[in-house]
């Protein structure tokens, strides 16, 4: 990229350079480099010294066929960049002064020739352009109309995120461009920063949009998917997805109306007919007939039986997996671009297309090609390994079985509760456990855990290593909740707070209320615990640091987590641009009916320019650990690691609830 100090050929060079330095200088040593208007082929260094602009010619000469640049004959450089870099650490010397270059003056209008900038584009026109590019990260920058009241010049970034179009105002304050509390020397610097750092909910600026791009990859405007007839934000249930099918056997159509496909083919946009023949799309075959009994439907499963749970656990990607392809013996082709897609991949077997897919770039396409070739080459070996593993599972040595002295894994039988042995243990995926912690089965599930141990683990479809909420599992007596420790989410933070008791040794006793006959986590009358009243005043905080640029605008969310009837949430107001020592003096009061199951969670957020909360720090404590008085609450990061200086100041009052 072009250095920020290089301004190229300025119109009326000397006068404009002086104008820029008078307007944007930051003290002695502020400078810029421009093409010389007097000596063609040379450059000029313009800099600020003692309230005045001065100019110095950068000469050039040829040495052994290479161009050298210099201010004085004795010190030459291979490039302008080397020359400027040298004089930022070494003084320029003359008979009248000695000066080191300091702050570069960026080009005020370097954005004018960028492909993402639009000098005359309305908000509605920007939305029309972005509706035609269905990719998160698509963006453009446009100049807004000058404010008649203040005379300020402003701009806006229009972008796509979460399948919606959003706009963000950029303010120009003197020589700086501001977005929220972050400031940049130029629009180019601002855009380059948010290409590397998230602008909105993890979204980075990726695809610059202009008319040239739209003429190549633009699609039909996606009006309904963004704005529709009502609010910008649609209800998820308003969308109906047509099912898809996977072929169980090969089929060859006997006329042009019928589809031809091979085993494992994916058929999309399926329309079910009553005649035993359905209609769908497969590759270039659009809306053609195929026999329904040759395929299985693979749309999302919403209400699964325990048997279906077990079947889905065998899928690597869980809900996201729609089938699989045996790539052994397949041919891979890269067809010509079509439909706006340039990087295509086609997998064929016996002359039939198994799968046709598109990649975003040639690099991504090459990566897929390498992975498919590797999978095809290693498939026979992996099949043999899998066969041996299955054989080993069927033949467990008695000597190995005799070593299992603490727990014996057995299938869970809800009809046989109370008759199991204490050393018999069952494991559940979270989907099955959620069925048993429901109001219908929770009392029986609690009864099971008074005698036996269970383990709950995340479902297989959590390919992003996210976690389930363990609180209701604990409330029903589950002893072992397996978590993805590498993911710093709310569930792992609750897990950290759960085991603060007992010196953080790794286990805590089951609350006495759960061990009582008749206990139900949904029934407040069965807790057998004296209720408490908690009065909490969030006074202030100190040293709250946000990620990225700018100053934090913090607010505090206080959450009571426990039995369903004890869950509450409160929040303070937002203190704008004060992360050093914000003050709130916000007071909350709540009755807690089953304190042994309850936790208090403090979370500090930074409210960004979009009004969205961004995590700063948290702290979680079991309710039984709270003591009355003024308390400094040390904050932790998302991994529950200590911050050095960040903390909250709160006053806590815990007393018996009033009758």
Automatic annotation (TrEMBL):
Catalytic activities: a 1,2-diacyl-sn-glycero-3-phospho-(1D-myo-inositol-4,5-bisphosphate) + H2O = 1D-myo-inositol 1,4,5-trisphosphate + a 1,2-diacyl-sn-glycerol + H(+)
Record's protein name: Phosphoinositide phospholipase C
EC number per UniProt: 3.1.4.11
GO CC annotation: ruffle membrane
Domain of life: Eukaryota
Statement: the UniProt record of this protein carries the keyword Calcium: yes
Cofactors that this protein relies on: Ca(2+)
Gene Ontology molecular function: phosphatidylinositol-4,5-bisphosphate phospholipase C activity
SH2 domain ranges (all copies): 5-105, 116-209
Pfam families in UniProt: C2 (PF00168), PI-PLC-Y (PF00387), SH2 (PF00017), SH3_9 (PF14604)
SUPFAM superfamilies for this protein: C2 domain (Calcium/lipid-binding domain, CaLB), PLC-like phosphodiesterases, SH2 domain, SH3-domain
Segments forming domain PI-PLC Y-box: 400-515
InterPro entries on file: C2_dom, C2_domain_sf, PI-PLC_fam, PLC-gamma_C-SH2, PLC-gamma_N-SH2, PLC-like_Pdiesterase_TIM-brl, PLipase_C_Pinositol-sp_Y, SH2
Keywords from the named record: Calcium, Hydrolase, Lipid degradation, Lipid metabolism, Phosphoprotein, Repeat, SH2 domain, SH3 domain, Transducer
UniProt-listed GO biological process terms: lipid catabolic process; phosphatidylinositol metabolic process; phosphatidylinositol-mediated signaling; release of sequestered calcium ion into cytosol
Organism from which the protein derives: Nematostella vectensis
